[in-house]
Design a protein that fits this description.
about 350 residues; Rossmann fold; five-stranded parallel beta sheet; seven-stranded parallel beta sheet; alpha/beta
């Protein structure tokens, strides 16, 4: 999208009131222009042809055509940045996770009290997500791999290292994390992840990955012992930090204020890993808007950890990795297709020296 003009947005929602409220919120920002609305995917299809929007906001539950079916057709024939608008329910989370797999770049959750001011209070979040989406690079479904990434070789070397891998991501991170986690062997070093994602959605995301991956993937809970072959994903409404209990590493999930504008915050995770694990950690920062995680990754590198940033060539949004690279937090930049291999290479190298 050219930076010289506002992001042109088409709102697709079957509720006339919701279309009106979303239009009012997005129109408060001079960097966004709402160029139209549609009550269903069939009308949206014609307006996309006529108006050529930069970003689409799409309600999950739509009449006349299933929202997922519409999204799949859109990302095949006319790929564009899409922000899903979903209810904060288990069903909404499951459908939206499927939408992210089809190429939606982000999700905005409608608060339960939308009609009484709850949506207005969340306006800045919606504006930020739409502007991030406008900067996103999306690919056609036909250009994306339809099979899981090749699983890397199993080796007992990982069991002998006490390395911990910490990963942070935001916009575009759901699919990036999927590619990395599915490539891991069952004995991979333990991995802790903070992805900017709403409550309920983190559990659904973990469950979906767990059903596909060779490693065990779960939403982190407070006080868990961290072990090899497991991936722990921060809850969508809690910070995830790492503590030590004797020789064991333990998860610490807790409520608290936003940090770098987020909860969970990548900076919170990375700072705790820097303090707890020092040189025995690997830090990875993936696609995302903003700067969350950059200072934390720098703290990890200063503590002796190996640090990896996703290369611009594969990022949906080259924001967080760019800031981290510019402040000297990234030791090496690697495209997404090689990040899992690079993580294991660093850990294998460390284990071989023991």
């Amino acid at each position: 999208m050219p930076t010289s003009r506002p992001a042109r947005v088409l709102i697709v929602d079957d509720s006339a009131l919701m279309r009106q409220m979303l239009t009012a919120i997005l129109s408060t920002d001079p960097g966004i222009e709402v160029i139209g609305t549609a009550p269903d995917p069939l009308v949206a299809r014609e307006k996309i042809k006529a108006l050529n929007p930069d970003v689409l906001t799409l309600d999950v539950e739509m009449p006349r055509m299933d929202g997922l079916a519409f999204l799949e057709k859109l990302m095949t024939l006319r790929p564009m940045p899409v922000v899903m608008v979903s209810s904060l329910t288990d069903k909404g989370a499951e459908v939206t996770m499927r939408a992210m797999e089809l190429g939606a770049v982000d999700v905005f959750c409608k608060p339960m009290d939308s009609a009484s001011g709850g949506l207005q209070a969340r306006g800045p979040e919606l504006v930020a997500k739409v502007k991030a989406a406008a900067a996103a690079r999306v690919r056609s479904l036909t250009d994306r791999p339809r099979t899981p990434p090749h699983q890397l070789a199993v080796t007992t070397l990982y069991q002998s290292t006490d390395r911990l891998v910490a990963i942070g991501s935001s916009t575009g991170g759901v699919e990036a994390l999927r590619d990395i986690v599915l490539a891991l062997p069952p004995d991979a070093p333990p991995i802790v992840i903070t992805q900017h994602i709403p409550p309920k959605f983190s559990a659904s995301f973990a469950d979906r990955l767990n059903g596909l991956a060779a490693v065990r993937v779960k939403e982190a809970s407070d006080g868990e012992r961290i072990v090899a072959g497991h991936v722990y994903i921060a809850p969508g409404d809690r910070h995830l930090a790492i503590k030590r209990s004797g020789a064991q590493l333990i998860t610490h999930c807790y409520d608290g204020p936003l940090v770098t504008g987020h909860k969970p915050s990548v900076n919170v995770l990375f700072q705790s890993v820097a303090e707890t694990c020092g040189a025995k950690a690997v830090g990875v920062i993936l696609t995302g808007m903003g700067r969350d995680g950059a200072e934390g990754l720098l703290a990890m590198r200063k503590a002796g950890a190996s640090t990896i940033g996703e290369d611009e060539s594969s990022c949906v949004v080259y924001g967080m990795p760019k800031v981290a690279f510019e402040i000297g937090a990234v030791e090496r930049q690697v495209p997404l297709s090689r990040i899992a291999e690079e993580i294991l290479r660093v850990c294998r190298q460390d284990a071989a020296r023991k």
